[in-house]
Amino acid sequence: MDRKLIGVDLGGTTIKFAILTDSGEVQQKWSVETNILDEGSHIVPDIVESINHHIKLYNMDKSQFIGIGMGTPGTVDREKGTVVGAYNLNWKTVQNVKADVEAGTGIKFTMDNDANVAGLGERWKGAGENGSDVSFVTLGTGIGGGLIADGQLLHGTAGAAGEIGHVTVEPNGYLCTCGKRGCLEQYASATGVVHVARDMAEEFSGDSELKRQTDDGQDITSKLVFDLAKSGDALAVRVVDKVCYYLGLALGNLANTLNPESIVIGGGVSAAGDYLLKQVDHYFQEFAFTTVRNSTSLKLARLGNDAGVIGAASLALSFN
Amino acid sequence: MDRKLIGVDLGGTTIKFAILTDSGEVQQKWSVETNILDEGSHIVPDIVESINHHIKLYNMDKSQFIGIGMGTPGTVDREKGTVVGAYNLNWKTVQNVKADVEAGTGIKFTMDNDANVAGLGERWKGAGENGSDVSFVTLGTGIGGGLIADGQLLHGTAGAAGEIGHVTVEPNGYLCTCGKRGCLEQYASATGVVHVARDMAEEFSGDSELKRQTDDGQDITSKLVFDLAKSGDALAVRVVDKVCYYLGLALGNLANTLNPESIVIGGGVSAAGDYLLKQVDHYFQEFAFTTVRNSTSLKLARLGNDAGVIGAASLALSFN
C-alpha cells in the first residue's frame, strides 16, 4: 500500500492542507479559515476535524499515513511539540499541539517554524532541486529565512537561526519593529519597499508617476513600485536599485557564511520575478567572495503558496 | 585497551602533532618544522615518518589508534582525501594526502580545513563547551571561521562556508586581497588593525604615542595598538573602537543567521583578551536581534595553539 504524508501550513488567515505521496507529489489540497477567536482555542480542534473529515472523504485510512507535518508561526519547541507566542493566532500561552493532534487523528505529528518549513518545501520540490545546501528567504510583509546546510535544517540554540530579516544592512538606518536599526526587513520586505519609496519620493525632484501618487497620498504598494520601475519610472527605478542593493549585500554575506548551492527568493516581493532577481544578483556578485560567487546562485522560488504544505509534509518523512 | 587519536595541525612554519585519548585529553605533543622545499613534496613523508617514529618512541602500537585527523591550509576534497592550492606549503598541484598517510602509517586518516578544525577543537574541549551550535572565528594575519550548527561542521557547496573574513562590513571600503571591497579581514585581522591605525593616524591631530610611532615610520603591530589603547592612548582607543565596531557588526549578523550558543574568538588579535571582548560585545548587542542577543554569547578561545591538533583529532572520532 502506498504511504502518504499530510502537510499543514498554519497561517493567521487560512490553514492549508495537502495529502502527498512520500516522494512529494501533491494529491489533494484544501484549506479552511483560521478561527482565532477565544485565544485561538478552536485552531487545533479545527485542524483535527478537517484532517479526519478529508481522510474519510477520500476513502483513506489512518494506517496509510506516515505522519502529519506542520509549519506554524510562533516559537516551536520541537521536542515537546508545543508552540508559544504566535500572536497572529492569538496563541499567547503554550499550546500542546502535537499531543492534541496525535490524540485527535491517531497519526504521528511533527512541526517546525513556518519559514523553515517553506524553505524545506522549496528545497525538496522547488528551486532548491533537493540540494543539501539551500538557503531560502521569503520577502513578504516581513522577511523570514529557512536554512538547510549539509542536508540539515538549521535551528540555532534558541530557534532563531535564519533571522535574515534582522541582519543589519544599514547601521543607524531605519528603526525596526524588533527594536534595532537598519534591519534588512525595513528595506526589502513589502512594507520596507514602500518605506524606501516614500523617503526617496520626498527628495526626488524629477518626473515620476510614483512621486505623483505618493505626494497625492495614495496607497503605495511594493507591487506598484516594481511595476512602475519596469515601465521606466525614474523614481521607482532608483527605489528598486536601493532595495536590490540591500538584498544583494545581505544575501552576499549569507553566502559568504554558508556557501549554499542556491539561495531561493520567495514571498510576495519575489513576484517581481527576473526583473528583481537580475538586479539583486548584480549586487550579490559585488558582495560575494570569489569561491562563493562561483558556486552559489540566486533563484526565484517555484512553489508559491504550496511551499508550506510540501515542506511541512517533508518533516513527517522522519517517521518513515 | 585504550583507544587513541592522533591530531595533526599542518601550518606553513610548523607541523604540530598530538596523541589524545578518545575523550580529548592530550597525552603527548610534539612538532616539526614544515619543509616547503621542492614544491612541498617532503611534507607528507615527514608527517608519516614523525608519526611512525613517535608511536615507536612511546612504545605504542598502530592498532591502538582509532585514526589520524589533520587540519590543513588549502582546499580539501574530503571524499578523495586530497588538498590543492595550499600556497604557503608550496602545494600547487593536487596532493594525495590521505592515500599517502594511510599507506605510510597503516592508520586511517581524515582531514579538513585548518580554520574548521580549530573551530572543532574549541567546540570540543575549549570555550565552546561541547555545544551543538558553536561558531569560531580566528583573528590572525587573516580571518578564518569554523561553523558548527546543529552538531555538524558546515562546509557549503564548494567548501567556502565560514568565510567570515570576507563578509562585507564596509561597502566601498578597503580593497581586499580577494578582490572585493570592505571585507572584515581588512579591518579586524592583525594586518587590518594596522591598516585602520595608519589611516586614522593621518587624520588624528591630538596627542598620541601611536601617532608618533606611525609618523616616525616605525613598525606598527596589532599588539602595539591594543597595548597602547589599554594604557589610554587617544588614537589607539579610537582605532580599537572602530575595529570592534566592525567585529560587532559581522558577528552580530553571523549570530542573526546561525544563532549559535557561542561565538568563540581566537587567533593572535584575541590575545587582547577581555579588553577586546567587552568592546566587541558592546557592538554585538547593538547589531544582534533580541532572541539572538539573549541566547548567543561571545567568548574568548581557550586552547591557544592546541585548538588545531585537538580539533583535528576529533575528526578521527568518525572512525570509531
TrEMBL record, chains A, B:
GO terms for cellular component: cytoplasm. It holds the Pfam family ROK. Gene3D superfamilies: 3.30.420.40. SUPFAM superfamilies: Actin-like ATPase domain. Keywords: ATP-binding, Kinase, Nucleotide-binding, Transferase. InterPro entries: ATPase_NBD, ROK, ROK_cs, ROK_glcA. PROSITE patterns: ROK. One of its GO terms (molecular function) is ATP binding. It comes from the Bacteria. One of its GO terms (biological process) is glycolytic process. Its EC number is 2.7.1.2. Belongs to the ROK (NagC/XylR) family. This is Glucokinase.
